[in-house]
Each structure stands twice: as C-alpha cells, then as structure tokens.
Here is the input.
Amino acid sequence: MINAPDVGLLSLFLASILTSNVLLANFLGTCSFISISKDFKSSMGLGIAVTMVIGICSAICWAVLYFIIKPLGIEYLSFIIFIIVIAAVVQMLEMIIDRFSPGLYLALGIFLPLITVNCAVLGVILFMQIRNYNFMQAVIFGFGSGAGWWLSIMLLASIRKKLDNNNAVPAGLKGTGITLITIGFMAMAFIGFSGMIAVQ
Amino acid sequence: MTQILIGPLAVAILSTVLAFLIAIIDKVLNNYGQMKISINGGKKVLEVKGGSPLLGTLAAEGIFVPSACGGRGSCGACKCKVTTDVGPHLPTELPYMSPAEIQKNIRLSCQIKVRKDLEIELPEEFFSVKKFQTKVASIKNLTYDIKEVLLSLQDGQTVEFEAGQYVQLVVPPYGEISESVQRAYSMSSRPLDKTHIELLIRLVPGGIATTWVHKFLKEGDRVEVVGPFGEFRIHDTPATMVCVAGGSGMAPFKSMLYHMYETDAFPEKEIWYFFGARTTKDMFYLDELAELAAKWPRFHFVPALSEPKPEENWKGDVGLITDVLDRYGQSSIDKSKGLEGYLCGSPGMINACINVMKKNGMTEDKIYFDKFA
Here is the structure.
C-alpha cells in the first residue's frame, strides 16, 4: 500500500545526519539551537531529548498516519494529530527526565516543554509523510535527524565555548551576533554535502 | 455528515488514549511510596508520601518553613539544612546561596523533592509555627499609605509569640494575580493578647500583598496567617535599648514597648525609641507614644521629621533619623549599663543606623535588626 522510496537504511541514516541535516540544511528547530548552545552540558541533554522525541514521534506518527489518518481519510487533520502526539510524547519524556535526572530537568527548563513546538520534530514527521517512507525508514530517518540535530548543537556549543574564551570577538558581535554568523558558516559547510545521498 | 464527525472523533479518541497513557506513566513514575523524614537527629520523625517538594510535604505535616513566594523558588526564604545527599545544588537554588551555605548543605526546601528518606535540620521554633484562620476585625488608616489591620483568631485558636516576631500573611489570588502568595509582616499586637494579631502594612506601589490589603481587604474578610517566625526579640540584659524605626517598622516596637510597659518585663532596661518620618503626613501613633513616655519614666520617645514644612508647626527633632540618633548618642543616652541596638526598616536605613551606632560605641553583635526585603 505504501510506495516507499528505494533508499537503503544505512544511507538514509547517514543522509539524515549529514547531507540533509535537519538544522543546517533545512533550518528547522533553530530557536532552542541558538539559546541552549551557550552551555555545553545543557546542549548535550537537549540533544539527547530531541533525538528521543523525534525518533519516538516518527514511529508513533507513522503508525497513526497509516492506521488511523489514511484509513479514515482525515489527512486534513494530520497536522493537529501529529502535534497532539508530539505534545504527549514530550510530556512523558518530561516526567521521565524529572524522575531520573532532576539536574538536567532544571537545566533544560522551559526548552523541554518547548520541544513540543520545535519545528524540527514536526518537520521530520511531515518529510516522513510526503516521502512515503515505510516504518523502518521512518524510524531510522527520525532517529537520524535527531542525531543530526544533536550533532549540530554540540558543534555549535563547542565553537561558542572557544569563542567565549577568546577576546578577539568585536564587542558589537558578542553573543547572538557571532553565533548567527557561526551558524551561517556551518550551514555553508553542510551545504557542501548536499545531494551526495538521495533521500527520496 | 459522518465524514465531518469522524475527524473530530478520531482526534478526541486519540487524545483520550494519550492522556490515559500520561496518567499511567505519572502514577508509576511518581510513586515513591512512604518516606521517612528525620528532623534534628531523630527528635521528630515524619512518615510522609514521597514525590512532592519538601516544603509542601512539611507543611502538610504541620511544620511551616517560612516562605514568601509559596514554593516557586523566587524568594529564597525556605532554607533548611539537608544532611542526606540529595544531589548537587540545583540552578534554581544557587542564586540564593552563599558559598558557606552550599558548603553546609543548606537547601531551598521548595526545590528539594522527597525522593528518599531524608535527614534534615530545622530551627526548633518552626515546630511551634501554626496556620491560623482569622477574620479582619478592623482596618484603620494610620497615614495616607499605612494601615493598621487587626485580625481576630477564629475557632478558639490562640497564638503564642514573643514581641518582635513576624507572621506570614497568605494572600489569595485576586484581580489579575492568579497565584496565592505569602508575605511577612511583623506583629504589632501584644503577646498577652493571644486571640488577636495586629499588622501595620504600608502600601508599596505595585506590591502584590500590600495592594491587596489596601485596595481589596474589607472588615469581616477571612484571612489565613502562618507563624510566628523570627529571631527579632528583646534580649534579657540590663543594657539600654536603642530602637530605631521608620514607617511600618513601627510594628515590632509597638508590640515590644506595650508588652514591657504592661508586664514590667526587663525592669532594668532603659528604652530610647527613635522614630523617623519625612513630614507630619507620615507620622502616626504620636499621641499614644508621647502619653506612654509621660507615664513611664524609663521610656524616651524621640520622633523626628527629616523634611518638616514650616506650616506644619513641628516642635520635635528635625533631621535624618541617623543624624538625630547621632546627636542623642553623643549627649543624652546613658551608656553606663551598655547599649543594645534594635532596628526595623528599609535596608538602607538599617545600614546607615548600624554605622552611626558603631560610631557611638555599640558593637555589631549587640545590634539586632529586622530588614524589610
């Protein structure tokens, strides 16, 4: 019933991390990317959290898409349904993190519930929908994109740590200014990968 | 028609299933079972249900740690020592902790969740802290911005406190304020009157609690207070008391003075009371205290205005309260039995007074104060 594209799982995984990185190639999920990356440890935590959310949500949303939305013919409600699923998964993850790592819970603060409206999550699920991935492809693509987001925020956090210890940054560019420029360079570097692996 | 119904129905069912899942996970994850909290080395052991913040857990057991914000981590008042290892200090605690407090395992009880058996240390006075149901008996305007609020305790409750202590007033949600908050006010009533609590409350522009008291509170309203708290009290020595207050800082001294007068407590103590205001508009209790001074030889009352207007015809002392204090300190106050300083007011006033007192031969360990924060 699904006309899945002929993409190998390994190449799809690598593609979602590198060549079509959700952050640096598609520019999704930038708000928390910019604000959390100033702290290395929080970036690590948020990276893990986003990866979990995207991966789990891709799997659940795939099932919801092919077992509820399509059979009932309610594609026009798919955005709302996906958001509800994402919100619920984030809520569950929030409780789990609060239970097992209160320090991380507080470090992530408002950004943990805000994963709900992180465009990277909905973006990946919508890519999954329009590219007609099968279940395994959806899960791999989800976790891969999450890992790609995680990789990007770790790269940016490391660069920012170096920049903060360096007095060469002009006063007018300190903080967000130099961060945006850095992201621009990073995106250009990632564009160099683009088209190397087909994802659809 | 069915097509229109199916969509919303599917969304509703899916939401219900997810909500159900969340509820189950919540039940499983937040089930910590019964926990033991041992206070002050086993003097008191509580059996409580785990999973909630320590502050609320203790309050449910009738132990009220002072908290001005009601557990939102924004006041830093609910400090207590937790000897059990509950992990490193959280980012929400650090702004309120000095390095010495971090070293000593002082934590904010509203941020620590009861997730295992805990050993904590609390000042003994917290055990006598209770929650009181009161009714507003009267509200009087003392000045244009200070009100005297008299609360009468309900249900046969009585309050035991020492003159100088404070209570937390529980402000319910009102107007655009959606959360209940607690604010501390010194009691101006006498300790012998165990069925009333009197507070002097100055309107702070934009203040949540003071706006509520000044604009919303009416006679006959029910109000909750928690207390008593505080270390500000008369010290039992023969030393002369030098008290300085401004504005609603009058409250603890009103309580102390009338208590000492009526019970003849600490008979050796001589008392000087300096009360500062800007103009006569800010002055209150002038006649009452002058009358008290007239019939009570060891009490000296010095009201002072810093900016009297000529038409006010002010006959008392003029100048900043610190200058007046300095003047009297160098001439009138008898220092032979030693001096003790008692201060209540804004942090600025207190710091300025401490300097003047030190200059006049008082040592810092004999200067006691109650800062409005």
